[in-house]
Amino acid sequence: MDQRYRIPPLAALNAFAAFARTGGIRRAAAELRVDHAAISRHLRDLEQSLGTTLRDRATGGLTQAGHTYYTQITPHLDGLARATAEVRQQAPSLTVTCVHGFAYHWLLPRLAAFRRAHPKMEVLLRPIDASTPFHAPGIAAETHADICYVRDDATTPTPRGLCSVTIARPPVFPVVSPAGLAALGGQPDTVADLLHAPLLQEEDETEWRLWFEAQHVPAGTIPSAGRLWQAHITLAAARAGEGIALSNPFLLGDDLETGRLLRIQPARTPLEETPLGAYVLRATERGWENHALSLFRAWLLEQVTDAHLC
């Protein structure tokens, strides 16, 4: 056999691909569920086999040769994985983590339609409190995609090795139950009047403070009717008449149509449509073109467009 076409061991190629995806030997070991010494050995053997340096020891990343090699072999490794799954006659599966409110009030009621359109695909939806740490031990192997809410004031950079697409930037506005509105004595005259109303907060007052800033209302102190950690819990408290909550169309379900909740509409200072962030779908670079995820991503964006919630 021509020596130029001798392929390195698959274990070494998998170790290198995992290292390139995750950006670290220990993270690669966690993804593949092997000892980190095995990853180091595979990388060393692969470099010796190829006769070139793949890792930049100074930065901990890839050399230019390493980046080129990773780009070239990844489609072939993915093709092997797909071919193996087909031979085993495995149904495609998709695990999506998602912030609670979006999962419960918007995505879950629509998943049945996706399953009907793709009956051979297994979909697991896992509501979580925060963005999925894709490079944490075990996570990358178990989670294909994550739907999170990213506020415009976020300072945490997007982790390396992730692809993302904005699902929607919904407007945020205050809502109250009919009983809660009656306790206020009716709709306020101005936005500033809300600074004297019972405001339901999530983990802190940041969301309200950003909202008042967007309405051009100076807010020294934000009155609190309770801190309830998550948006869908503040909405439950608002339905119970405990105060005013900030919300968006993805969290409200049919609350406005049924009258369980009402929009706050100041009589003299109309509210401005105010997005404070975006719902974002994220996945690793390797998983972004996964067939199941591609179908789900296209369906999800179509659902948002059809609902006129962009």
TrEMBL record:
Signal peptide: none annotated. It comes from the Bacteria. Residues 8-65 form the HTH lysR-type domain. Keywords: DNA-binding, Transcription, Transcription regulation. Belongs to the LysR transcriptional regulatory family. This is LysR substrate-binding domain-containing protein.
